[in-house]
């Protein structure tokens, strides 16, 4: 696919349902007794993998134009799947579903595609094993995972590193366990699971860094609504910051503070945006966001992202690298070792493609550095089958000197199937 440069973008965008929230609501809906209705559910391939796995556990799930309905007898009535569960490209699916398998009285296998089967799972294997499950992994760390479930026992588990997926895995397992399960967070990560738990009648408390659930839980079905995906919106936000004739309105955008560190940085840097129609969907804050070209951002954006800032915007790093090419101070990413364990090695994927497009960049084990004020020349992009790399470098194509060619554009369906259609709709 060729992405042609443009001099203006504008219009209104309806964002897809948040992928992270969709996974979690689907899992909790399957664990609860009754019929859970979820509107705005993501149509991403990753979330379809979660639904397919839940169906294999005996849950009835039906799609409608506006969302899904989940009919379940509850987590105590999950059925042994007749074949290995397939998480596809979704690391979230394999980590969350492993919790359900660990607390179910049968043996099962869960695996993913080639990319997911290269992603380490030790961080969930350790707590689930401590809770009583027996899990066999390739080389003691990688999928496929052979899980022999049992009656779990609650534990206190300090997270070795901040991870919303590991945190959620342990809390979900705790709902099936006897007693109290406590997760201790070193740094706050996205908190969609915690916000959702009370709506499903889970006993959940938070005291500072200690997050606790009590099991075994009698979860109840709920009616839930999913906001627009902030991680999808970021590609259009960055495009608006780079194109002088840009004016966009992003409708129904989720602005959970654990996800929107980028908005804080942009506001501090002088970005021109306005939030209106503020409301909540099931304790998730939502707004309409109007944004336009803001030259002050290019002058004032911080030259380094690391620490807690990096944790709050880990999904945004590929497209921030595109923004970094035009910043007056350049951009350095440090402390991002986790980026090498995503759908692709995102540090290397960013570096390779920036160089393919004529941008100077230095690679580090934990990040990269982009010198300031560079022009993207155009050329060929290797997506590495990674949806966020494909979308980030599509944005690069909008501001390049020559067209940018993506080798595997279809990978965007992992999170945002309508991305290119939406991108084309806002071109001037």
- Decide which structural class fits the backbone: alpha/beta
Work out the count of structural domains: 2
CATH class of the largest domain: Alpha Beta
Strand content: 25-35%
Query: Looking across the biggest beta sheet, what order are the strands in?
Result: 2-15-17-16
Largest sheet, in brief, is: 4 strands, mixed
Overall shape: it is globular
Uncertain stretches of 5 or more adjacent residues: none
Relative helix content: 25-40%
Number of continuous helical runs: 14
Please identify which CATH superfamily of the largest domain we are dealing with: Enolpyruvate transferase domain
CATH T-level fold name of the largest domain: UDP-n-acetylglucosamine1-carboxyvinyl-transferase, Chain
Radius of gyration: 21 Å
């Amino acid at each position: 696919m060729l992405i042609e440069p443009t001099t203006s973008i504008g219009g209104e965008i309806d964002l897809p349902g948040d992928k992270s929230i969709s996974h979690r609501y689907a899992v909790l809906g399957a664990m609860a007794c009754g019929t859970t209705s979820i509107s705005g559910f993501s149509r991403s391939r990753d979330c379809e993998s979660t639904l397919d796995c839940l169906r294999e556990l005996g849950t009835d799930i039906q799609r409608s134009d506006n969302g899904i309905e989940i009919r379940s007898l509850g987590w105590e009535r999950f059925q042994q799947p007749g074949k290995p569960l397939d998480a596809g490209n979704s690391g979230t699916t394999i980590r969350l579903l492993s919790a359900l398998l660990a607390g179910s009285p049968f043996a099962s296998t869960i695996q993913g595609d080639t990319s997911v089967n290269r992603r380490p799972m030790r961080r969930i294997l350790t707590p689930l094993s401590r809770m009583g499950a027996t899990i066999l992994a390739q080389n003691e760390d990688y999928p496929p995972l052979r899980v022999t479930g049992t009656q779990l026992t609650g534990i206190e588990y300090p997270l070795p590193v901040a991870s919303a997926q590991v945190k959620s895995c342990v809390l979900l397992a705790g709902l099936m366990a006897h007693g109290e399960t406590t997760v201790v967070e070193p740094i706050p990560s996205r908190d969609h699971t915690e916000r959702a738990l009370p709506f499903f009648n889970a006993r959940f408390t938070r005291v500072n860094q200690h997050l606790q659930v009590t099991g075994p839980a009698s979860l109840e079905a709920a009616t839930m609504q999913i906001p627009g995906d902030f991680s999808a919106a970021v590609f259009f936000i960055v495009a608006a910051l780079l194109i002088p004739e840009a004016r966009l309105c992003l409708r129904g955008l989720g602005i959970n503070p654990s996800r929107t560190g980028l908005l804080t940085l942009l506001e501090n840097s002088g970005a021109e945006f306005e939030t209106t129609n503020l409301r909540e969907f099931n304790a998730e804050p939502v707004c309409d966001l109007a944004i336009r070209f803001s030259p002050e951002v290019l002058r004032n954006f911080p030259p380094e992202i690391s620490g807690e800032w990096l944790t709050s915007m880990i999904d945004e790093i590929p497209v921030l690298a595109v923004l970094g090419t035009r910043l007056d101070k350049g951009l350095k990413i440090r402390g991002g070792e986790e980026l090498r364990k995503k759908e692709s090695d995102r540090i290397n994927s960013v570096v390779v493609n920036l160089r393919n497009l004529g941008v100077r960049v230095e690679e580090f084990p934990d990040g990269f550095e982009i010198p300031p004020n560079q022009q993207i020349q155009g050329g060929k992009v290797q997506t590495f089958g990674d949806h966020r790399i494909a979308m980030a470098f599509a944005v690069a194509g909008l501001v390049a000197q020559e067209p940018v060619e993506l080798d595997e554009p279809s990978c965007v369906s992992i999170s945002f199937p309508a991305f290119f259609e939406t991108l084309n709709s806002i071109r001037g």
